[in-house]
Each structure stands twice: as C-alpha cells, then as structure tokens.
Amino acid sequence: MPPVSPQGPAVRPDPPNPYALRRRVRMRRRRRRTALIGLTLLGAAVAVAGVTGDGLGGDHGDPSAVAGPAPVVAGEGAGDRQQPTGYPRAGSGEFVAAGGDSPVQGADGPLRRYRVAVERGAGQDPDAFAAEVDEVLGDPRSWIASGGLRVQRVADPAAADFTIFLATPDTSERMCAEGGLRTEGYTSCRLPGRVILNLARWMDAVPDYGAPLAVYRTYVINHEVGHQFGELHEGCPGPGRPAPVMQQQTYGLDGCVANAWPYLDGKRYAGEPLDGV
C-alpha cells in the first residue's frame, strides 16, 4: 500500500468550525475547576491533620496532561494515566492507507467519502482498522440515520472529502497542533478534512469509562467524525442518562452513562449545546 501524507488529500471546502477555540475554552474551565478542587482538598487536609507545605502529592493540573516517566494523577475523576504499554508512543510519521472502496451506506443525502490511514510502525493493520471504521459509520445508529447523508470509504485520495488517521500519541499531538489544538498526546482531534484518532485512546480508552473498549472506539469515531459533519459539543442531560456522542466523554461522563451512538431508538439523541465550548 502506498504511503500517505499526514496532511491528507486535497479536501473540498469545509464550513468554518470553532473547534479549536471551544476546546481551549473547555480545557481552561476544567483547569480552573481542578485547581479549585485541589485547593479545597488541601485546606481540608490542613484543618484535619495539621499538614503544612506540600501536603498533597501528585500533579492535579490539566486533565489532558500526558503521562511522563512517572504516573500522572488526572483531574475530573479520570484516574491515573500510565505510560503506554503494548503500543508505541511515537511512530514514523508516515501513513499507509487501507485499500479498496466500501459500499455506499445510507439511504439519501449527499455522499461523504472518506479515506482511512494508519501510521507506519503503529502495530495496527490498516485494513482491519478500516473495517472497524466502516462498521461504525455504516451502522443505522450512526450519522447516516438522519437520512440526510451517505458515507463511503474510498482509496483514491482525490475522491476523498476527509481522511481518518490512526496515529501514535506523539504524531497525533503534532498533527493536531497544526490546527491550533492542544492535545498533549492524550486526546484525539478533528481538523478540516482530517480526523485524527490517538492510538493510546484507541488501545486503552480512558480510565473509569465504565464500558468495554469497543464502546469507546465506536464513540471516538462517531464523535470526531461528527465534528467533520459540523456537530458541536454537548453536555450531559442528567445523571444516569446516556451521554450524548458529542459530549467530551474522554474527559469524563459528568454523571451520564457511556454511549457511542448519535441516534438511539431511531431518534437523534443530543444534550444541551455548550455555548462557546
């Protein structure tokens, strides 16, 4: 299979998307909330145990902080983020595209064509990854359920509207940074014409997600491709309810239950839009 440039194919014009600004605002809000929680816990420790100085160990900073040589304690109840095992943190920066075209999926609407590529050296088979993507995007609970669009995977870069990349954490961080997104090697992202899935999340999901890895993988495909289709972030509609697929479930469920699909029982399932986020 021929190598693929991480810049991807030339894409058709994409509608303006405030995704970079919204993610930065969201992360700033989470950092402030985490800092307040840390100060509250520190004050409680001082009052109860008379602890002075650095009484609480660990790094309680940015919830998207990437693991270093030692474990990092993540905010927002995400648990400990360990150094990755079983897959590389860095790759070649070159991508190999899956071959062949898939059948057209969906009943009606404009046809959105996508290509799938895996970073060379990531330890993942491009055709196997493409089969998982095809299965998700062709599912009647995915975006085609709207009846307003159809999807098809293509091998020809000139025919593709966007490319879905599976990239190692270091490479995904660099690619996302080209669009002004700060992922710190932890999260996935979407730029115009490029959906960039982080290999670490693909292999490990996130701590305390409360659902099998397959559910998280389905969620992250639908979430990032949803951005490509113009969808914005949404909030949890209430404790115990399914999380909207456009909720940032990687950062925590906020009382909701993991959910990977934009359509439930044949209807679009959504939460309240997050203004400016």
Automatic annotation (TrEMBL):
InterPro entries per record: DUF3152 (IPR022603)
Ranges that cross the membrane: none
Protein's name according to its UniProt entry: DUF3152 domain-containing protein
Organism: Micromonospora mirobrigensis
Biased amino acid composition, Pro residues: 1-18
Coiled-coil portions: none
Domain of life: Bacteria
Disordered: annotated span: 1-27
Residue span(s) of domain DUF3152: 86-254
SUPFAM superfamilies, per the entry: Metalloproteases ('zincins'), catalytic domain (SSF55486)
